[in-house]
């Protein structure tokens, strides 16, 4: 993940940049205000002036980064076809060491996020942030799924020979009641799979499972996207 604090606009951003670098270096458990101050090019006492403790500072850091992600979405900064956006998301969440997107977390930051998410089990401020974060990514994934499904519909309309194969995929992906799949359902499934992959990646040394999981998610998308109702 590219450092978003290379040119801080004010003291707050400079402090958040110091927290970002210290968090990536030390992780949550070993992070202290003193270590954040060591990354700060002004008086470390300013950190204490702006924040009561490391958790208040880290929640503000997470909110700042999420605001930046939302701004990038609004500005259409992700210049990728919809299916490619989904594949990039899956790759970033299952194996960040192999992802070079400037918006994707690198391994150190993803590990830190897993540590921070664990704090949400007992800390309301972290829980409120991750509630919001999940909503933002749900919206991003829903839109990407909706656009990917619409692209499949358009391709099928232009190629009658492909239409029969897509119809078979649709019937296979639909529920026994014949219901169409909604973008929200696919987005929620991808988020749950990604959360599990992030946790496993950050807490184990054996990463041999990654290719199998990536193939499984790819297969899920291949069979499910044709059944998605873009208008749902």
Number of helices: 10
Q: What level of helicity do the residues show? A: 55-70%
Distance between the termini: 34 Å
Rg, Å, rounded? 20 Å
Domain count, please report it. Answer: 2
Poorly predicted regions are none
Beta-strand content estimate: under 5%
Structural class: mainly alpha
Query: How many beta-strand elements?
Result: 0
Q: Categorize the overall geometry.
A: elongated
Mean pLDDT: 87
Q: Note the run of SSEs as H and E.
A: HHHHHHHHHH
Main β-sheet description: none
How would you characterize the overall build of this protein?
- The chain starts with 10 loop residues before the first helix and ends in an 8-residue tail after the last helix.
- It has 232 residues and is an all-alpha fold.
- 69% of the residues lie in helices and 0% in strands.
- The protein has helices spanning 11-26, 33-38, 45-50, 54-74, 82-94, 107-119, 124-158, 160-173, 183-203, 210-224.
- Helix 4 runs parallel beside helix 7 and helix 5 (82-94) packs parallel to helix 9 (183-203).
- The protein folds into 2 domains: 1-61, Arc Repressor Mutant, subunit A; 78-227, no CATH class.
Question: Would you kindly provide a brief summary of this structure?
Answer:
With 232 residues, this protein is an all-alpha fold. It has helices at residues 11-26, 33-38, 45-50, 54-74, 82-94, 107-119, 124-158, 160-173, 183-203, 210-224. Helix 1 (11-26) packs across helix 4, helix 4 packs parallel to helix 7 (124-158) and helix 5 packs parallel to helix 9.
